[in-house]
Amino acid sequence: MTDRTTRIRASHIIAFDGAQHRHLRDGEIVIRGEDIVYVGRRFEGEVDAEIDASGRVVTPGFINTHAHMAGSPLDRSFVEGGGPPELGYDTLIDYLMPRHALLGPDADAACLEYSFAEVLRSGATTCIEMGGELGNLPELVATYGNRIYYAPLYNSAAWYSPDGRTVAYDWHEQRGLDRLEEIAAEIEAHDGSCAGLLRGLLAPAQADTCTEELLLKTREHAARLGVPITLHVAQAPWEIDNMVERVGTTPVAWLREIGFLDDTVILGHAIFLGGTRWTDRPEDDIGIIAASGASVGHAAWVFGRDGMGLDSFRRYQHAGINMTLGTDTSPQNMIQAMRLAAIYSRAMEGGNPRATSAADVFNAATLGGAAALGRDDLGRIAPGAKADLVIFSGTSFNMTPLRDPIQNIVFSAETEDVETVIINGRTVVEDGLVVGLGDRAEEVGARVQRVAESMWSGMATVDREARTIDDLAPPSFRPWEE
Ligand SMILES: [Zn+2]
User: Fold this and answer.
1) Whose CB among 88, 143, 175, 367 lies 3.0–4.6 Å from 436's, allowing a Cys bridge?
2) What is the CATH number of the domain that holds 414?
């Protein structure tokens, strides 16, 4: 990267003053190479290039702390109607696990490339990708320019349902430990590659599928490598029942007991906590998370579509938990993630529009994500921060009239209002088009369609009861009949 300088003049800049975001009207941002070197009213020095963002809004890029980019596109037209009531409407066991058996490296590659483009369209400049192999991630990062924390999932057990009503565990402890060693070595080799855009993160898949030994070995490796940790926890009612039976308490209380929780850990979901409306457990899980310094990676839509929400975003935030946002499923849209996080919090607080503001969820999508990753150079527009920026239209149908850009973005904007995305000083979305896609947009979409059709037609072969895709996910309307 050169030290070429670019000045962005904008009507609205969400600038960081060292403590919090501020709304700077008619200001300037100057980028040198990968970094922001100036934000303020007027830059007096010389620059090599200019970007005119008059009438527009410039915000920091969003940080998606919970993505499954190699799978999520295939959630569309599939899991939106929810899973079986016997399993708490959860789709993990009867939908996502069997589907996984049908997908190979080609499917992963098709979805990954699609997702690289999809996340950029809503301004997500950083994503934690919880998936499989390193594969072609370095090539995709080089082509599309996303900032990626790759986090291959590993565990000590696989779920299965013997009867469609309960979940059991098929243990493979040694394989999990071996896999952790491989992943740690891979992260050591690749962390910080691609001009620092590709970093590693350790992701023991779920609290209930990991042994204490695997989790504590994960902590040792994370400390040695200086990388954060994420895992799914409290994401299903059956998980709580199984953990109470196995260890005598909730998964969150157990993670504290074994010494796993601290401020390097991001807890994915953390919905079914003791002390909330979703369980009858007496443990104060919200207090435990807050005291530990761990973050919550909240993906509102994946539970929202099942009619559930955090109890509540406001309650977690007010307890002192560092809140972050992710997408988890399809659509991988951080604007929607912010909007739904705010709406569900207001609903869960008994219909209180003051419960969670646009600023609260915007902070979670920027500063919260950065804090969770231990990065004070992300999620903010400030000198010394990485040049990860989003330029929104200020004159579109969704953004007009414009007084408070954050309320407009959180409650009205759509992906088409994202005009430009810059990551590490490089323009990766221009005039609303993903630069890395070039003329391949149709081809990349068609590849995902082919993978999906093959998955849909194969579902009966992997389903416990040989149910077809139409049995599992009934179409909204019956087919036309002549
Ligand atoms: Zn997930």
Assistant:
1) 143
2) 2.30.40.10
